[in-house]
Amino acid sequence: MSDVLAKLKSCVSITNGKVKVTDAKAVKGLIDDLIYEAVFNPDVEKRKALQGLVIEIAKQMGAVPSSIQSLYEEMGRNYPGFTVPAMNIRGLTYDTSRAIFRKALEKNVGVMLFEIARSEIGYTKQKPVEYSAVVLAAAVREGYVGPVFIQGDHFQLIRKNYLSGPDLEKNYIKGLIKEAIEAEFYNIDIDSSTLVDLDKSTLKEQQRPNFSIAAELTEYIRSLEPSGVTVSVGGEIGEIGGKNSTPEELRAYLDGFRETYKGKGVSKLSVQTGTAHGGVVLPDGTLAKVKIDFDTLRQMSEAARKEYGLSGAVQHGASTLPDEAFHMFPETGTSEVHLATGFQNIVYDSLALPASFRDEVYSYLKQECAKDRKEGQTDEQFFYSTRKKGFGTLKQKWWDLPANVKAPLMKELEDKFDLLFRELRVVGSKDLVNKTVKPVVVEKTVPDNILG
Per-domain residue ranges for the chain? Predict the structure, then answer.
């Protein structure tokens, strides 16, 4: 570490905590080693300081954490015919983010969200500030300049926790929101759909626990916004994997939300249309075919835009769909689609991943996740449902895979990003982003002695 920090001293200066890049080319050549130290240094405080340094360097070099709010407001006025890919990266985050930025530069893509959910922060061991630092380091490494949209996905209230102690659960989410905004996540999805009470007689009363908590948390988000930044907030009306949402539920939620909170509300709304997170795995390890109700998506996106000025409806749990389905999202006016497990599957199922390493991960899962095994599950079903948990504790081993393993893995992922960018029609979207989003550099300080 002392070597990389000594070299950084010649191309980065820190005065009164403020970072200035004096030689961008040299910094780019050092960023691989710097981000590795920022993630794996054994000293927790040193790690946090180095992560903060990486984020400040990225901003200096033109990769600026930003809110997608103004673009979504434009989508509410004049839908541009594309669907924004929101990508959850659970493992190999630096390499995968680099692959995304490479493809984005090649295709002139500007609209893409890098996101991580409440649950993923835990099992992948990626705290918000680390996630921001890694994504932004990848942008620096690839020479990507412009707004970088980082999102807190599924900041979800867990129903049983909420019912046994509402304030405890709300305060946990508030703590997570505060941590995320400090890490420059300027896009946050609040998921209080878990609190919908279907026993109530009217849709408004069913949605009341959902929209009232979402309104309270939105007000809290607004109280934390840095000067010049309006965080893009997402809501959700139907828990993914439950019954399909309806336009009437959308109106009940949005009308109730607006009556409860008079400030700037949500910019989009997640709905349930027949998918399940991660897909449904059959006993032989293959995925069951998913039938999405695209008609519902179309109706709800239209209502969200025309009646409420939102960017549209958001689709979760879509990454395991067949490739030929993705063109339907822009055709139905879907504003955003969340993608996670499909990328994980490419990595785990790739012939480039050494069988011995996969076996090592599966052996860890068998031991550490035994309690997650459902009765009657085959090994294939068990490993498919738990392998997302193979990235956290073993993070450094994934990161240390040799270049001749990672290169073909990243090529497979790049091919997938290429397909998604084309099918979701975001190729060439950088121009619209440059027109609608004005990045705000929120300058922060780092310890003066961080470079030694």
Answer: 2-60, 66-346+404-432
- Residues 37-50 have a mean pLDDT of 96
Q: What is the rounded end-to-end Cα distance, in angstroms, of the chain? A: 10
Dig out the tokens for 95 from the structure: 């390499």
* Contact status, residue 278 vs residue 52, Cβ threshold 8 Å: no
Q: How far is CA 47 from CA 138, 151, 240, 338, 397, in A?
A: 17, 22, 35, 29, 18
Dist. CA 209–CA 33, nearest whole Å: 47
In this prediction, residue 105 carries a pLDDT of 98
**Residue of 305, 220, 235, 307 whose CA lies nearest to 269:** 235
The CATH class given to the 66-346+404-432 domain equals alpha beta
Task: Answer yes or no: are the C-beta atoms of 97 and 114 closer than 8 Å.
Answer: yes
Partners of 362 in the beta sheet?
none
Q: What is the pLDDT of residues 236-289, one digit of tens each?
A: 997 544 578 899 999 999 999 999 999 999 999 998 886 554 455 556 666 566
Considering just the CA atoms, what is the radius of gyration of the chain in Å?
A: 21
Nearest by Cα to 167 from 230, 216, 206: 216
What's this model's pTM, rounded to 2 decimal places? 0.95
Residue 210 CA to residue 156 CA, distance in Å, equals 11
Q: Do 345 and 91 meet the contact criterion of CB atoms below 8 Å apart?
A: no
Note whether 173 and 217 are within 8 A (CB). yes
Measured CA to CA, the distance from residue 97 to residue 142 in angstroms comes to 10
**Residue matched to tokens 């027109």:** 435
DSSP-based three-state secondary structure for 188: strand
Q: How many Å apart are CA 219 and CA 267, to the nearest integer?
A: 14
Maximum pairwise Cα distance, the chain: 68
Cα separation, 430 vs 358, whole angstroms = 37
Q: Give residue-wise pLDDT tens across range 366-415.
A: 999 999 999 999 999 999 999 999 999 999 999 999 999 999 999 999 99
CA separation for the pair 236, 227 (Å, rounded) = 27
- The answer to whether the beta carbons of residues 401 and 348 sit under 8 Å apart is no
Residue that has been written with the tokens 């009556």 in this structure: 259
Supply the DSSP string of 287-319, one letter for each residue.
BPP----HHHHHHHHHHHHHHH----EEE-S-T
Q: What's the confidence (pLDDT) of residue 296? A: 87
What does the alpha-carbon distance between residue 125 and residue 90 come to, in Å, rounded to a whole number? 9
**Which residues lie below 8 Å from residue 44, measured CB to CB, with a gap of 6+?**
none
The rounded distance, in Å, linking the Cα atoms of 173 and 43 is 27
